[in-house]
Structure formats: structure tokens, C-alpha cells
Amino acid sequence: MERIQNPEYSTTMDVAPVILAAHRNNYEILTMLLKQDISLPKPHAVGCECTLCTAKNKKDSLRHSRFRLDIYRCLASPALIMLTEEDPILRAFELSADLKELSLVEVEFRNDYEELAQQCKTFAKDLLAQARNSRELEVILNHTSSDEHVDKRGLLEERMNLSRLKLAIKYNQKEFVAQSNCQQFLNTVWFGQMAGYRRKHTCKKILTVLTVGIFWPVLSLCYLLAPKSRVGRIIHTPFMKFIIHGASYFTFLLLLNLYSLVYNENKKNTMGPALERIDYLLIIWLIGMVWSDVKRLWYDGLEDFLEESRNQLSFVMNSLYLATFALKVVAHNKFHDYAERKDWDAFHPTLVAEGLFAFANVLSYLRLFFMYTTSSILGPLQISMGQMLQDFGKFLGMFLLVLFSFTIGLTQLYDKGFTVNEEKDCAGIFCEQQSNDTFHSFIGTCFALFWYIFSLAHVAIFVTRFSYGEELQSFVGAVIVGTYNVVVVIVLTKLLVAMLHKSFQLIANHEDKEWKFARAKLWLSYFDDKCTLPPPFNVIPSPKTICYLFNSLSKWICSHTSSGKVKRQNSLKEWRNLKQKRDENYQKVMCCLVHRYLTSMRQKMQSTDQATVENLNELRQDLSKFRNEMRDLLGFRTSKYAMFYPRN
Question: Based on the number of CB atoms within 10 Å of its own CB, is 271 exposed (0-12), middle (13-18) or buried (19 or more)?
Fold first, then answer.
């Protein structure tokens, strides 16, 4: 067979040397090529309709898609990122997000793009792992890029904003956030001046939490009056804020329980009852919780606010409580009569308010699930439950289609000529005297088929009839309901169990990473200086807020004077100098991290090569020993004169 000389059989002709070097992640060759001012290819968007993309796609769509994949494989090379980017961590974040989005568009190469996205995440994590002290971690995690919003007052006061960590959470960089160095730094910031709490005995920890939980109103007043005092600084730590906010919320739940205990039976037939004292307490607490959500919405923005499921639940819960008390006020102003509840209108404001209040109470207690995130035992279970709810939403789309299909069929079969022939002592799908007349309406059929899943619906399919048509109708109905049981009860239910098991197993395989990432998101909500006091104390203007307003007003007035303009220019100049100094420190730290990363890569390669050489030497010795043993064995058994022959 002749040797093939065509180079197209070995490599692609349109792949540049820099792309091949990046695919091999060869730092030395990339350095040499980039010194020659070789331009890097920039990939076009997937839906790009420029002349070049249209021509390439028309000529060979497969080659065009493969070329885009090769370019992204080049750009995702850690060596290329370190050589071409001033901020490798930020570039890794952005590139992983682009690759993840691209995997949803080009589903044919989804596995390749997801692998490249994971490679970028791992590179950012490994780069952070090269930090050797808290100062380097602080510089990295507090760095703000030029495109991000910069807190000028926080920069001048040298306050930690953790901008890079927030960006990592935004880009869903779970490996970066769950890295050991990052988690240790977060623990230090979380406990603050209470660093000794972690080393205490469990009983002392419980006693500390209970003490703070009982005296949280007194501590809130201390911070309200003297925020800069020693007690105020301790309360300002994120850990103390978490306990105080939790104690405030437990007090709110206690008021909800007292609400049912102080219910006045004499006013149950009043169509417009007046608000009780406990109602006013709940309204005050509700105003504080709404104000806390409004402040978070103002600082975080609508997109980031709604991204958190905790904020979504809080928004729905507060909306239901507001609607409840609004309807109570409307009922009190509009209705002043007494009547039996059975004579009220179905949508009476008082009845609607009670229904909304009951549903809001359920959500209030479910909100406690988010506190489980801080626990290493209950946290992974809470995360698994959240993932299961997402999978159940996907399953619900399939189940509703099946339910709707069988409901239409049974309703069309049984609604024709429906008459009530007998009186029953009970009604509804739970009545054991039901016949197949349950399927005469769409709503009744839906309820019956739904409760069939739990074996709670009593519906007689085969009923003795006098005519042949009614027997055929019963048989067809039995076949439809039987098919429904097979499809839903046997197939779809088992499918749901398999989906939930897969979700739980997926979280369990990465339990530590998922829990640390979720815990970091919860902790970050207590790191800022926006919501220190819990409801209802947060609605009271504190001296700190008044000082901030007074300083802002005085700066605004002075900015219109000549001396004020000079001070403002000096302040801006000072801010620019501090920002430049921080950027320079970040570049120095990043250079150190890159050099350490390269050193660790070379050491791994050398250890791998050394291990390969040692394995080859051991294999050579084993083969030589095996050959000598086989010579001795075969030479002894093949000839009785073998002892007279010399051996080499």
C-alpha cells in the first residue's frame, strides 16, 4: 500500500499554528508565536449573517462549525489566556459563560462546548488556589474591573466589596467560589470580631445564639443609637446580623401563631370586622420586610433581585399579606352588617382575605428552608429539594398534557344525555356512591383523574345498564380509564421517581461544592452595609442614616461653590489614584499567581515524565526477568543434554 502524502488526511489546512499550539496548551511555543505579532482569530456569532460567514456556511456548514469549535478551543487554552489577558480570571469567567450559552445554541457540539466551559472554570479555580496569604486573596476578591460599577465611598474608606466574588456568583462559577482559599476568607469575614465563636463548645454556641435571639430588640436599639460603639461594631458583623434577622423573623412567626389564638368567635359573622391590635403589629412588621426588599431591589437591580428564589418567595409572601390587610380594610369600610357565613357571597372581601392569609402563612414557614443553607447537614438536602422542584416543573408539562387529553375524551363520552336518576347522601369524587356520571363535566373529570393517582377517587366504571349502548359506553370508559392508569400511575409516576433520584444523585455527587456555593450566596447578602437592622427597626431613621443624608446634602450644596468644586476635584483625583493603586496591586498579585501556576504545571509535567520513564524501566526489567525465566524453563524441558550447552 502506498503511503498517503496528502496533508489534508493528517491536519486541517486552515488551522493556524497558534491555534494548534493553543490546543496543545504549549506555553513556550505560544510565547514565541505571539512575539511575532500573530493575530488571534475572533469567532463570529452563531447567527452571524455577514458575507464571509454566509459564504463559508453555504460552501461547507460542517467545516464552518468545526472551525468555530477549533477557535473556541484555542481561546479556552489556559496558556493563551495567561499570555494575552491582563485579567485572566475575568476572561475565564466571561469565556465560560459564552461557551455555556453556545452549547445551548449548537446542540450538535454541546458536549465539546460544555467541556471547554468546565476547563475555563477549572483554570480560574486553580489560579485562585495559588494565593498564599489573606492579603493576596483580599486583592483578588475585591478587584473591580473597568466595566463594573465602582463604589467610590467604599473605595475611599477601604471597605471590602468582594466585587470579584459577586461576579463569580453571577457567572455561576461554583468551582471558584467553593475553592478552599475563598471559603476560608469568607469564613473570616463572616464571623468578623466573633472569630472565637467557631472554637467554642457546642453548648456555648447554642447559649450564645439563644442569648442574642432573646435580646435582639435591645441589641437593635443599641445599634440604632450608637452604631460606632463596641456593641454596634459587633452587631454589624454578618454572623450577628444573620442571628438578629432570624430572631426577628421567628418573632413574626410567633405573632402569626398568636393571631389564630386571639381570634374572636363573636365576630366570625361580622361581614367587615375591625382590625385588632395584633393586626397592627403584623402590619408594622410587614412594612419593615417590604422596606428591606425595596432596598435590596434598589441596590441589586431587578434582574439580580429576581434571580434569587429567596427574594421571589419573599416578594410573593409580602404581596399576599398586603392584599390581605387591604381587603380587610375594604371590608370594614364597606360592610357593617351581620349574617351567617353560608349566606355570604363566594368572593366576599373577608373570605378572600382569609384565603390569601392562609396561603401566605404557608409561604412564611416555607421561607425557613433558606436558613438550612448555613448547615452542612441540612444544606445539601435543601439544595436537592430545590433541584427536584425544578425537575418536577418539567414533569408537570408532560403530565398536564396527558391529563388534559384523557379529560377531553371522558367528558365527551359521558356528558351526552346526562341526567340525575337517583338521590345520593354524598357528593363529589370522594363519595363511594358515585357512578361514572362523575365524568359529565370537565372540572369533575379533572378532579377524578387527578385523585385516581392517589387511589382517593371512587368512580364506578362498570355499571349495570339496560341497553346495549350504555354497556358499550361503560366498556369504552373503562378502557380509557385503564389506559390512563397505565400511562400515569405506572409509567409517568415511575419516570418522576427516576428524575428525582437522578437530581438527588447529581447533587450528592457534588455535595460539598453545591452547598458551599449556596452558602456563599446567602452570606453575601449579609456582608453589605444596606440592611443591618431587622424589621421593624429598619423603618426607623438611624443617626447613621441621618449623618449620611446630611453629608450628602452638604456635599451637594458645596459642589456649587468655588471651594466645593476644588474639593470635589481633589476627591476625584484621590479616588483615581486609589483606583490606580489597587489596579497596580492586582496586576502584581496576578503576575505572581500566573508564575506559580506555570511552575506547578511544569512540576506536574516533569513528575508525569519521570513516572513514565520509571514505569518503562520497570517494564524493561520485568521483561528481561521473564525472558530469563522462560529460557531456563524451556531449556530444561526440551533436551536432557541442555546442561552441556553453554548459555549466553
Answer: buried
Which residues, other chains included, contact 34 with Cβ-Cβ below 8 Å and sequence gap of 6+? Answer: 18, 83, 84
Contact 285, 360 (CB under 8 A): no
DSSP state of 338: B
Percentage of the chain modeled with pLDDT above 90: 30
One domain for residues 514 and 574: no
Cβ-contact 449, 406 below 8 angstroms: yes
Same domain, residue pair 577 and 508: no
Contact 353, 299 (CB under 8 A): no
121 close to 175: Cβ distance less than 8 angstroms: yes
Residue 558 is given by DSSP the state H
- Is residue 311 assigned to a domain? no
Tens of pLDDT, residue by residue over 70-124, are 889 999 999 999 988 889 999 999 999 999 999 988 888 999 999 999 999 999 9
* Nearest to 181, CA basis, from 89, 43, 106, 258: 89
Same domain, 480 and 574: no
Final residue of a domain: which of 137, 160, 177? 177
Would you say residue 595 lies in a domain?
yes
Q: What is the pLDDT of residue 7?
A: 47
561 domain residue, yes or no: no
Q: How many domains does the chain contain in total?
A: 3
> Cell 468644586 appears where?
565
| 479 and 596 inside one domain | no
Of 1-15, 119-133, 167-181, 427-441, give the lowest mean pLDDT range: 1-15
The cell for 398 is 408532560
Is residue 334 in a domain?
no
Q: Among 467, 522, 541, which Cα is nearest to 241's?
A: 522
Dihedral, CA atoms, 390, 393, 398, 402, nearest 10 degrees? Answer: 150
Query: Three-class SS of residue 119?
Result: helix
Residue showing cell 498517503? 4
The pLDDT-based confidence of 641 (bands split at 50, 70, 90) is: very low
Name the domain boundary from 155, 177, 199.
Answer: 177
**DSSP 3-state assignment of 270?**
strand
Structural domain of 573: 566-644
Q: What is the mean pLDDT of residues 318-338?
A: 89
pLDDT digits 0-9 by tens, 572-594: 777 777 888 888 899 999 999 99
